[in-house]
Design brief:
Number of helices: 4
Shape: elongated
Helix content: 55-70%
Oligomer: single chain
Number of strands: 0
Strand content: under 5%
Largest sheet: none
Distance between the termini: 80 Å
Structural class: mainly alpha
Length: 103
Amino acid sequence: MLTQRTVDGAPTPPPPDSTLVGLSVVPERSARRATARRASDRRATARQRKDDIEGRIVEYLKDHPQSTTGDIARGLNADRGTIAAALSHIVRASDATNGEAAE
């Protein structure tokens, strides 16, 4: 290995060989658990804040019986795909409770 010379002409020492360069440091168990607990709490809060879109659709359809999926989406300020999926679920659930499910 070649040594480099500084401005005053003195050679610089080579960098020390480190065997820890490729190893990753694992955080302490308590830190990992705290991070997991915070993430779990955030997910639980998000589940609680999720509104009942199917209930909102049913209420909207009581006042607007001939509405299309796009009309419902605009009226509820929701995504059309979400409304279509919820309507499909409502229809399947009502078929099952009325005994009209396909055999």
